[in-house]
What does this fold into?
Amino acid sequence: MEWIEKWFPRTGKCAIEGIRLAVLNSILLGGGGTVVFLLFEAVELFRKSGIPIPLPVWLVMVLLIMPYYVLMFQYGKAFGVLSSSKRPVAGFAVGLLGQLPSVLLLAVSIDVELYRYISSHVWRALFTMMLMIVLVAPVMVGLGSLDNNDKGNVKNN
It folds into this structure.
C-alpha cells in the first residue's frame, strides 16, 4: 500500500493531481488488466476443452474493481484535503483527467476491433468492466474530494 500512497496528491492542483492519477491509473490498468485478461483467457481455454466453467467476473469485481473504487475514493479524499478550491467540480475534474488512460484503452480496443481476436464472452465481460470503470471511477474521486469527515485526524485534548 505504501507504493500507492506515494502517488497520492501532494499539491491540491487539479491538473497536476489529475496527471498523477492518470499515471497511477495506467500502472493499475496495465497490471490488473493483464491479470484479468489472462484469467479470462485461461477460463476460455478450459471451456474449449469441455470443462463448463463460468467466467470469474464476480471474483474480478470483488478482488480488483471494488478495491480500485476504494482507492479512487481515497485519492479524491486526499485531494480534497489539499485543494484550496472547495468546489465539487475540482474533484470531478481530477477524476476525469485521471481516467484518460481508461478511456484511451477502451477507444483503442474498439478501434482495433479487439472483439474479433478474442472470445465474444470475454470481450463482453472486459468491455462492460472497462466501461463501468470509466463511468464510476471519476465519480468516486469526486465524491472522495467532497468527503470532509476528518474524525480520524481530530486530536483529543
